[in-house]
Amino acid sequence: MLEAKVTAYINKKQLINHNDTILVGVSGGPDSLALLAYLNSIKKSYNLTLVVAHVDHMFRGEESFEEYLFVEKICEEWGIPFEGSRIDVPKYIKDTGKNPQQASRDCRYAFYRDIMEKCAAQKLALAHHKDDQAESVLMNLIRGTSGMARIGIPLKRLFGGGWIIRPFLAVTREDILEYCTEMNLNPRIDPSNEKDIYTRNRFRKYILPMIKKENSKALDHIQRFSEDLEQDEGFLMVLAEKEYNSLELTEKDGILKVPISSLGKVPKPLQRRVIHLILNYLYQVKPYVFSYVHIECIQSLLTESNPSTSVQLPSGLQVTKAYDQLLFHFGRLPSVTLSKELRIPGKTALANGAVIETVLLDPLSEKWEHASRYTCILPLSEEDLPLRVRNKRDGDRYQPKGFTGHKKLKKLFLEHKIPVHERESWPIIVNKNDQIVWIPGLQKINLEKTPMPAIMIKYVE
Length: 461
Fold this sequence. Notes:
Helix content: 40-55%
Number of domains: 3
CATH superfamily of the largest domain: HUPs
Mean pLDDT: 90
Distance between the termini: 74 Å
CATH class of the largest domain: Alpha Beta
CATH topology of the largest domain: Rossmann fold
Strand order of the largest sheet: 3-2-1-4-6-5
Structural class: alpha+beta
Number of helices: 15
């Protein structure tokens, strides 16, 4: 029964080609041992080369080492090359802070990748089955997972220069146990599979039996849902990638800038996937705790009335709304300390990479320029010297041109829609009494030619 189902599934889904070299992940449990036995039974008809990979995660001391030796002995009896490794996963957990399941997976798959390269395998065969699939789909839905992760366990995916394949997604746990009995296999049983501290175990022991009782075909329906969803997601992601490529993203100094107007126009179903693509680009390894809640938080920033707000994502990533842009960045947005006396005449280099140039003028000078937001001309008075550049301070006020009174600097920033993080590093030119005489980029100050001496200040970014 199992052989017929799996062989038909392999041929339908084109999982195995003739002359393939297949690395088989074998723990020694019923599922993986049955998979090895099945592949060994079709080895001649497909002209396959099989290699077994086994990892002892060293959680259970001598017990797990005995499983290592058991798999090694099976391979010796069946004439299959064996590649084993004992990895100190408890130490890896201590060093990385990852949970046991994620840490085990990281170490195991790293070993698989190395052995695939070593033996030039085209495929890595793993023994996940329909029950595993149902558990994964339900766990992900309840966890709030979004996007492609909702499909659960993919039938095949690229890995280590080849493919991971899962032929046993055609059969159930019950089919596998029956096959083990028929083939007189004596698999090892991991006692941790019975512990209720693991989410998957609780789904396996309590939730899946109820679902099967409601509908005996439930596992078939969940598997079909997974395969259909994978196709649908693949199609939608193609459309999302086109939208992503048209966003005109800019990246500088570790900050990815996304135009709100462009992202806001993307239809919601594609918008969620475009955000996924952005996060995939930024995260080298996407956090395990990532869910649809984080996508919704980012989407909410597109319509948030507050022009300067942010959301915190896992692993230190923040998304900050800065008027018409979303800024994706790890940690706090950078700010630069500005505190220098200006050279008059001369050039003063600032910590933000800009340069302030000052030129002395007299009524006959030919260097007078038309004032702009980046060039100003001021009367030169000994009472004002020295001039300095500094950062803004709480309560700063300045005197607008043509006004007798003073105005809050904060209001000027708001009028020009300067993002909060940029205000912190904005250059402010002050006199020796710490009175603001010019705000480069925001204030236009001009002095017509007069008999009195003057100074021209240019801010060059």
